[in-house]
UniProtKB/TrEMBL annotation:
Residues 40-145 form the Organic solvent tolerance-like N-terminal domain. This is OstA family protein. Residues 1-22 form the signal peptide. Keywords: Signal.
Amino acid sequence: MKSKRFIAIAALALLAAGAAGAQQGVSALKGHDSHAPIDISADRGEAQERADRVVFAGNVVLKQQELTLRTARLTVAYSNNNGIDINRIDASGGVVVTSPSETARGDFGVYDLDQGLITLVGNVRLERGGSFLNGGRLTIDLDSGRAVMDGGLRGVSQGGGRVTGRFTVPKRTNP
């Protein structure tokens, strides 16, 4: 069991380190400022002031610096202390998070702005430079750039509780 977990972690480290031609050892989201301004567009928006949230629906696009999130429905939770302070964003209906070099997909997503964490759940796929990982849950730490993929519960995700992936190997010429 430990060897399977080590292999999954090693494979994830390879993906995070980048494929051929990508930045070596640096995630595009490392150091992302989760307190930077957020722009949101959608077909519909509904402010629910008593609940301190805003719900967006239909072709939702969220942009924050180089991070883009697309989904069908987005709920923005905030506190109203001397201005609006966004704490958490919940996304559902096919979530796609992109940066200049990575794309992550899942059924549902949570962006915890206070902790600087993005979590995707359900049929998750992380792609970078022709390489990919599939699993049940992905957590990305925006401060460190560390991404952790879990296989999810057996019978819930397509992977059957396992992390799977494919990595491109650059062709090397022998001197």
